[in-house]
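A reminder from the course coordinator: this example appears on the midterm review sheet, so study it carefully.

Given structure:
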């Protein structure tokens, strides 16, 4: 089972970007070997998302993708989705208090695994935006505790907007007081991993720096690999025990980017 996650930074923009060069999101979906793809920041309602992805969706194509989505409550913000080669056995939207925010969607796959797509928004230290981020984090952790207790195999994929350690951000010294690298945020991730959730990339590659999955569009951040590792797969231990590989699909050049993130792809042996 191959699972990818990618923050598309606006699905319609990701479809348009590099389309003339036969690149962009649709081309990537045509080429990927993933069985499941989690999307974040679609910034589209359900109908807009389905229209943007229509060339690759089933039943338009016999081998097309099946789509589940959670649209954002604010126009142009958030939005998550899951694409799967197989039809879903169940779909659930939201966590407590954030049912309509387009930040969390979980699907059950025919093989028995649960795969949520997660978007934790950026936040801003010392503001109401950070308070809301931390409220969402608390609700998300509660749902993760429920999932772990259920005994189901699960892997939560998405843009967590938190660099866990100094190995996960190039310019960590300049960001110690900024959202995304605050002590409380980092401790929250530590709490998840100490409660049994496995950071898949760190299981495969324990040492840093990186591999980073987000780089600013500005300056030479991408060329200098001055990025952040904020796109994670967090898996229950039974599933993590079957990890085969994990990689960041960083484009070969700045000119080939169609989002400011890169897909993070994990392969598990089937149970």
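Designed residues:
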């Amino acid at each position: 089972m191959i699972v990818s996650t990618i923050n598309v930074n606006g699905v319609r923009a990701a479809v348009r970007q590099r389309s003339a060069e036969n690149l962009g999101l649709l081309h990537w979906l045509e080429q990927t070997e993933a069985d499941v793809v989690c999307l974040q920041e679609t910034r589209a309602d359900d109908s807009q998302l389905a229209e943007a992805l229509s060339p690759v969706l089933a039943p338009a194509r016999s081998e097309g993708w099946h789509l589940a989505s959670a649209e954002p409550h604010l126009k142009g913000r958030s939005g998550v989705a899951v694409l799967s080669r197989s039809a879903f056995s169940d779909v659930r939207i939201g966590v407590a208090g954030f049912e309509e925010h387009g930040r969390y969607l979980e699907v059950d796959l025919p093989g028995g695994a649960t795969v949520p797509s997660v978007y934790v928004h950026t936040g801003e230290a010392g503001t109401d935006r950070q308070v809301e981020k931390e409220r969402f984090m608390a609700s998300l952790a509660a749902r993760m505790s429920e999932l772990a207790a259920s005994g189901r195999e699960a892997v939560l994929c998405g843009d967590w907007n938190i660099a866990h350690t100094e190995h996960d951000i190039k310019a960590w010294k300049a960001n110690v007081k900024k959202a995304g690298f605050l002590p409380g945020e980092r401790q929250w991730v530590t709490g998840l991993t100490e409660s049994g959730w496995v950071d898949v990339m760190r299981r495969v590659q324990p040492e840093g720096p990186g591999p980073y999955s987000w780089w600013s569009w500005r300056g030479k951040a991408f060329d200098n690999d001055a990025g952040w590792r904020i796109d994670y797969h967090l898996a229950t231990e039974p599933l993590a025990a079957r990890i085969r590989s994990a990689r960041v699909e960083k484009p070969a050049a700045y000119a080939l980017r169609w989002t400011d993130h890169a897909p993070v792809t994990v392969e598990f042996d089937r149970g």
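The longest helix spans residues 128-150. The mean pLDDT is 95.
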